[in-house]
Amino acid sequence: MALKLVIFDLDGTLLEAMLDFGAVRAEIGLPPATPILEAIAALSDTEQARARAILDRHEAAVAERSCLMPGARELLAHLRERGVKVAVLTRNSRASVDLAIRRHGLAFDASVARDEHRPKPSPDGVHGLMAACGAAADETIVVGDYRFDIEAGRSAGVRTIALVSEPKPWARDATWVASSLADVQRLLDAAS
Ligand SMILES: [Mg+2]
Q: What whole-number distance in Å separates Cα of residue 183 and Cα of residue 165?
């Protein structure tokens, strides 16, 4: 089956992971190691507004000084040359996604940010991007550096690549494991 669409996570996948989740949790007053969006959703309306403002501020600061991961630009250009569509699926805000895209002069066929679909690990964003790009599940691959990326892809019935610098238990659930975007490129070339 031809590869038509690659859906990338943003932070830690195409961009260097710079958001300090611990600092965000501490400022909001959330316990360590809780998923931030889900914890915010459980707060009262007033607390949610305050928490979202804190998260947005941290994300905007990071987006202003974000760096591309090594090989990101080359990989995106390579896929475009092959006629493969590229998309972004992130738990970040729309503002921070657009800022990162502009800052690095990137182009995507589609993107899904926070609040536009139920967030990963829900498969909703994957389904939305496949519909937007006209790709079926067996023509789509999700690439990400966290278990939510792999869970979202698996729940949508698509193949997945876990991008990890060291072995992680959850990465075993991915179709493939890569340690760099150059690895990802080799896997995508072999997969299609
Ligand atoms: Mg990530």
A: 11
Is the whole model's pTM more than 0.90, yes or no? yes
Cα(153) to centroid(ligand 1), Å: 13
Measured CA to CA, the distance from residue 70 to residue 16 in angstroms comes to 9
Q: What CATH number is associated with residue 100?
A: 3.40.50.1000
Domain that holds residue 55: 21-64
pLDDT for 18:
85
Q: How far is the CA of 13 from the centre of ligand 1 (A)?
A: 6
* Ligand 1 centroid, distance to 15 Cα (angstroms): 9
Rounded to whole angstroms, the Cα distance separating 179 from 13 reads 11
pLDDT tens by residue, 98-129: 998 999 999 999 999 998 999 999 999 999 99
* Residue 82 DSSP SS3: coil
For residue 53, with 0-12 CB atoms within 10 Å meaning exposed, 13-18 middle and 19 or more buried, which class applies? exposed
**Which residue in the block uniquely carries the two structure tokens 């002069």?**
105
CB contact at 8 A, 149 and 123: no
Q: Is the bond into 121 cis (omega within 30 degrees of 0)?
A: yes
As for how many domains the chain has, the answer is 2
Asked if residue 97 and residue 49 are part of one domain, the reply reads no
